[in-house]
Design brief:
elongated, 4 iron, 4 sulfur cluster binding, 4Fe-4S, mainly alpha, transcription, disulfide bond, single chain, 47% helix, 3 helices
């Protein structure tokens, strides 16, 4: 979503995350708790003071905590990646941390697989 002054992005994405079984007739976000709440709760107004942002984000996370599609929403936001707002109970900064950890874990798993494969070649060799 592109951020433009005075225009808040909507928390309802156009479809489910990649690989989601939800089709166009019943996308995952139709059951999202945020559809019943103020969009402004999930996206920051321009030049929002830090204390107000933290309070708003906490309120948004409380809505997310009771949401039946929290995990689908979170995975959507991580797969896109969504650069703004609270999605799946995570802020944009928290999602960046999750993505960095996933990249690091994936790199470690690839390296472990490479070392294991090299060891097997030496034993078989």
């Amino acid at each position: 979503m592109e951020r433009r002054p005075g225009v808040r992005p909507q928390p309802q994405p156009p479809g489910g995350p990649a690989g989601s079984p939800a089709g166009e007739d019943n996308p995952w976000h139709t059951g999202a708790a945020c559809r019943r709440d103020e969009v402004g709760l999930f996206f920051a107004p321009s030049k929002e003071p830090t204390a107000a942002r933290l309070s708003r984000e906490e309120q948004a996370k409380q809505v997310c905590a009771r949401c039946p599609v929290l995990l689908e929403c979170r995975e959507h936001a991580l797969a896109q990646p969504e650069p703004y707002g609270v999605w799946g109970g995570l802020t944009a900064a928290e999602r960046r941390v999750v993505l960095a950890r996933r990249r690091r874990r994936d790199a470690e798993l690839r390296e472990a697989a490479r070392v294991t494969a090299a060891g097997r070649r030496r034993i078989a060799g």
